Amino acid sequence: MPADDRVPARSRADAAAKAGRLGRRGFLAAGAGVAAAALSGRAAQATTDNKYGPPHIPDWTKTLGPGVGDKPYGAPSPHEKQIIRRTVDWLTATKESSVSFTPIAEQLGIITPSGLHFERHHAGIADIDPKAHRLVVHGMVEREMIFTMDDIRRFPSASVVRFIECPANGGMEWRGAQLERCQYVRGMVSCSEWTGVPLRTLLRETGVKAGAKWMLAEGADAAAMTRSVPIQKALDDAMLCYGQNGEAIRPEQGYPLRLLLPGWEGNMSVKWLRRLEFGDQPWHTREETSKYTDLMPDGRSRQFTWFMEANSVVTFPSPERPLDGKGFYEMTGFAWSGLGRVRRVDVSIDGGRNWSPARLHDPIYAKALTRWSLPFRWNGEPLLVMSRAQDDTGYVQPSIAELRKVRGVNSIYHNNSMLTWHVKAGGEVENVQLK
Q: Following CA atoms 37, 387, 373, 166 in sequence, which dihedral angle do they give, to the nearest 10 degrees?
């Protein structure tokens, strides 16, 4: 739904003006003492109102809980059952070729739990016996070879923390604000610790002929997902991954083996990897011609736009996580870039008129989610909250207007524009788009 249908232009302007005054009066907390005082006051009130606080003894302190081994594989608390991947029913025709979204607004650190990593399938989840799985390496190589999973696990391993992002993340927002969850607007990005073998290590066994310029990666799912990859990327930081967050990769993430191309379009990190072919030119498969190309205003399509540009999101406040009354808060969010490390995140509460630098939380890895925060005091007036990321190449996250000048509105992919949350006087938050 376009922004004009959500918030009248006059209302947006009034909100921005009020937010500007708020920003000048007290956007940043005066310091740790102010924050502590504000929080201690709220905590004292909560303790007084809480029937489970002293001197009361809650029931869970009077009974024994489950013992060691009663749950051989752990699960989240049932009180967290609302934090799940979600789908948009009308987005695709079938579940087998669809997407689920990470609940990024509830993610607490830079690592996305494996069970919450967003999904994107083209023919459903392949059910593969790892003992029967094979990886074929052929084409313009010195020695064509077939590897079992046991073979691959014998190579020296490495672990890296990297994000994977679908290039359609935010793709429904090209014409205007559409969906009222942070999860739906920026939830096609997740970050994990990936474990496996650097591809260049395995290719020392097969060799690569001098004329080889491209690699074709193919998956073992029913769609036989295939993408052409430049040889420079294959020999740089590409990995063959069998581990995710300390355990075997989940089936929906490519068990038992997936390709990882850090910082590039998620679909290129082919899941259920079964074949690598080397050649002297790209293959121009379905997934890089009719799909995963960028439709430009003149009707032409831009191809091979691999890099995921710098992006960011405010996770609190957000539509799922409104403000609960006036007072002190810590605004939080994530930033990331497929070109390197996040160097800076700026935050505005007045629709981009004034900006303040956020604090970046360690660790800050290249091509990974970076957590940021900014303390502020809310006096109950409407806000227009935005974040803007900059990476160490100097690239700055653009506005939607800046993207549209180049791309138009008919594309799907690579919408990394700044989001705007309209915080209403009651604390509720809605997704809007400023011109």
A: 140
